[in-house]
Amino acid sequence: MMATPANHDRESTKPVCFNCETSTTPLWRRDDEGKVLCNACGLFLKLHGRARERAKKLGAAGGVNYKTDSRWEKTLATQLPADRPYLDAVIDGAGGDIIARSVRLLKAGGVISQYGMTVAPKMEWNMQAVLKNIDLKGSTMGSRLEFRDMIAFVGEKKVVPVVSRVVKGLTNIEGIESLFRDMDEGKQFGKLVIEFDDEASAKL
């Protein structure tokens, strides 16, 4: 693995980490295939022999990939702290067997907040959830007033969303279709954005 000092004064080239997509780092590195990595991702790869998880770089304590781990709830259970081996709440938009799987991880009186059912239109409510007094709460998108308040909060607190990729223009059909392909293939990490041009914005 190679390392080079980051030159923040150069505007001609702006390296971006292949793994976490940051453009700010004290040192740029490369993996064995020559891909550019930030200092943190490069060191993690060197020490652990695998890529650094993007969610952990953003502050997550742990996590699992339900698409590649068929026993994800058991994997997640091993990541919980020994002195507090349970979750307070689960926020889910998939549905399906989420109750049967997550109820084992939730504390007694825990909450499942459901905002969608992309896997299946029904969820089985089992006896274990009843005995643990699990609370299921439905969540919708909210009103226009709540949306306005959210935008104001984002501006006030300077919340910066994670953006996976941006395509420009509503007439960029190929670019927009590529965003849908990213979703189909599960490639995105963060928001997929269509940036309006001035002409399209004027028509809207």
What does this structure look like?
- The protein has 204 residues and is of the alpha/beta class.
- Among the domains are: 14-63, Erythroid Transcription Factor GATA-1, subunit A (Erythroid Transcription Factor GATA-1, Chain A, 2-Layer Sandwich), CATH 3.30.50.10; 66-141, 3-Layer(aba) Sandwich (Rossmann fold).
- It contains eight helices and ten strands.
- The protein has helices spanning 39-48, 54-57, 72-79, 98-102, 127-131, 144-157, 173-185, 198-203, and strands at residues 2-5, 27-30, 36-38, 87-92, 95-96, 106-114, 120-123, 135-138, 163-168, 191-195.
- A three-stranded antiparallel beta sheet has the order 1-2-3. A three-stranded parallel beta sheet has the order 4-6-8.
- Helix 7 (173-185) links the parallel strand 9 and strand 10 (191-195).
- The longest helix is centred in the last third of the chain and has 14 residues, at 144-157.
- 9% of the residues are buried.
- Mean pLDDT is 84; it is low at 7-12.
- This is GATA-type domain-containing protein.
- Keywords: Metal-binding, Zinc, Zinc-finger.
Give a summary of the structure in a few sentences.
This protein has helices spanning 39-48, 54-57, 72-79, 98-102, 127-131, 144-157, 173-185, 198-203; strands spanning 2-5, 27-30, 36-38, 87-92, 95-96, 106-114, 120-123, 135-138, 163-168, 191-195. The protein has 204 residues and is α/β, with parallel strands linked by helices. This is GATA-type domain-containing protein.
